[in-house]
């Protein structure tokens, strides 16, 4: 049971696409030794035991490598491989087990390429690495990206690398010059890079300058309004058709030359510009545009193509601005570029706004202040009363590293200071109250003085008639008996008057006299001559 054969060492598997090669090393010198391999695979990670089987293509081989591509059909399952040396009836121990998952160790093979040199350009067509194979390792061949390395076939060659589509045109070559190139397929999402294609060389031709072709084709886009412009160098009548191609079609290996479409509204036009905003139906993809020129003889010429990636090609326009003042705040209302209905500008660019504001005075050294906001409404505080403030706003997107021009300046004057008018009003009211109080007191004093004067000099009650007769005489003299003027005393004595009557008349007289004294007036007798006499005189006459 003993043997002198050694086991193979350094077991490796090399995989390109679906082609698998097993390689190993052997230190023995016996040339009659052959090698045979076995394999097993696990459909389930929980299965630890599987039956070993002979590895097709790797039985009794004399070289230290074998191709077992036909044995691998499950590219995502775990496989084990082992090998041993054999010499007639004698065998070596099995080598160590090599474990692999085919998909993870496989390399992307070289793509196929086709070249054509025409009119000063090189047209290249690339086919996927497994284009001619029935079994495919890379089922997502549409995800392939292709890198081109090209250089001038000379001793001081400078290598240039760029990404290309499966069908592409390269137009920056010098005429009558040989260029060499190679292409590599990659899967960026899986971080896998393939093998380069064999080097191919081709000689360029001269480019024919056709005056009918539109030149300097360019795109001007502002706020998602897209315009294509070009120059006309043809002296005779010419009309244009603007054509576009969806960008994803260039990623396909199929021929897309028949899939160009005319832009609506830009067919058979004579202008050298066209609004193609109507075809921008999605912002996640990209587009290609070209201009087809036709003369009166139906000869046509196609311009160079221009690529349009909507969010990158588009430029942001200045926003709209309105300003207002309330109390001590400056209110700034911003209208997004493209108007309030432009959802693309507002949502996809994630716009922010840069506000510049300053005092507009004769002093040009006034500091310009800046404020950045995300909302479309901003406020500025700490304003100076009775001052003209000016504002301008710029929209910008950090995501796309784009910014607009500043809007037009909008100016507004802040209201005056309200403290001074309040002070003036309070002073006026206080002064008015004081004046009214002084006037009221003065009026009251004058009224009291007037009443005193009127009371003293113009009393409201009149003296009795008997006092009025003594005008100019002192009041004390009113109670003194008046001097008797020398008058002729006459009396009429009626004899028929009896003493009893006289007594009655005297009593009546006395009673009348007493009443007159009480009232301060003297009574007059109708039968007398009207001359005033004193009480004593009358008594004497009666006696």
UniProtKB/TrEMBL annotation:
The keyword rRNA processing does not apply. GO terms for cellular component: plasma membrane. InterPro entries: FN3_dom, FN3_sf, Ig-like_fold, Interferon/interleukin_rcp_dom, Type-II_Cytokine-TF_Rcpt. One of its GO terms (molecular function) is type I interferon receptor activity. PROSITE patterns: FN3 (PS50853). SMART domains: FN3. The keyword Membrane applies. The chain crosses the membrane at residues 419-447. This is Interferon alpha/beta receptor 1. Residues 315-417 form the Fibronectin type-III domain. It comes from Opisthocomus hoazin. Residues 509-530 are annotated as: Disordered. It comes from the Eukaryota. Pfam families: Interfer-bind, Tissue_fac. Keywords: Membrane, Receptor, Transmembrane, Transmembrane helix.
């Amino acid at each position: 049971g003993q043997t002198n054969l050694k086991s193979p060492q350094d077991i490796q598997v090399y995989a390109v696409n679906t082609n698998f090669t097993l390689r190993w090393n052997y230190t023995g010198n016996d040339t009659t030794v052959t090698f045979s391999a076995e394999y097993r695979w696990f459909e389930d990670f929980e299965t630890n035991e599987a039956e070993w089987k002979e590895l097709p293509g790797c039985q009794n081989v004399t070289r230290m490598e074998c191709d077992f591509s036909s044995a691998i059909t499950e590219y995502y399952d775990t496989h084990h491989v082992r090998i041993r040396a054999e010499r007639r009836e004698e065998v070596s121990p099995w080598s160590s087990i090599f474990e692999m998952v085919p998909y993870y160790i496989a390399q992307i093979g070289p793509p196929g390429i086709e070249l054509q040199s025409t009119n000063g350009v090189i047209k290249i067509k690339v086919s996927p690495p497994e284009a001619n194979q029935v079994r495919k390792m890379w089922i997502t061949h549409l995800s392939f990206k292709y890198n081109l390395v090209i250089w001038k076939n000379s001793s001081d060659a400078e290598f240039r690398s760029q990404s290309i589509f499966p069908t592409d045109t390269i137009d920056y070559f010098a005429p009558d010059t040989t260029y060499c190139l190679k292409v590599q397929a990659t899967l960026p999402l899986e971080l896998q890079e393939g093998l380069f294609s064999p080097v191919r060389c081709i000689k360029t031709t001269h480019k024919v300058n056709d005056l009918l072709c539109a030149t300097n084709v360019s795109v001007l886009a502002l706020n998602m309004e897209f315009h294509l412009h070009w120059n006309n160098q043809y002296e005779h009548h010419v009309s244009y058709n603007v054509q576009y191609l969806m960008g994803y079609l260039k990623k396909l290996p199929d021929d897309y030359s028949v899939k160009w479409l005319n832009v609506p509204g830009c067919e058979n036009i004579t202008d050298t510009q066209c609004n193609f905003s109507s075809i921008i139906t999605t912002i996640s993809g990209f587009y290609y545009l070209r201009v087809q020129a036709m003369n009166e003889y139906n000869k046509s010429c196609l311009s160079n193509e221009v690529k349009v990636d909507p969010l990158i090609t588009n430029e942001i326009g200045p926003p709209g601005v309105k300003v207002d003042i309330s109390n001590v705040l400056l209110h700034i209302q911003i209208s997004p570029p493209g108007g309030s209905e432009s959802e693309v500008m507002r949502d996809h660019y994630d716009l922010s706004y840069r506000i510049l504001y300053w005092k507009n005075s004769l002093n040009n050294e006034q500091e310009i202040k800046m404020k950045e906001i995300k909302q479309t409404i901003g406020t500025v505080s700490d304003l100076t009363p009775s001052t003209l403030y000016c504002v301008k706003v710029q929209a910008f997107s950090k995501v796309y590293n784009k910014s607009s021009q500043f809007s037009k300046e909008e100016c507004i004057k802040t209201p005056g200071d309200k403290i001074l008018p309040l002070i003036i009003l309070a002073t006026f009211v206080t002064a008015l109250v004081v004046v009214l109080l002084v006037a009221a007191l003065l009026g009251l004093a004058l009224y009291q003085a007037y009443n005193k004067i009127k009371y003293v000099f113009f009393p409201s009650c009149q003296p009795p008639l008997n006092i009025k007769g003594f005008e100019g005489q002192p009041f004390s003299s009113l109670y003194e008996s008046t001097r008797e003027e020398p008058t002729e005393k006459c009396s009429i004595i009626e004899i028929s008057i009896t003493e009893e009557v006289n007594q009655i008349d005297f009593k009546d007289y006395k009673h009348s006299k007493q009443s007159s004294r009480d009232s301060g007036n003297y009574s007059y007798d109708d039968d007398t001559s009207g001359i005033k006499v004193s009480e004593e005189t009358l008594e004497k006459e009666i006696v």
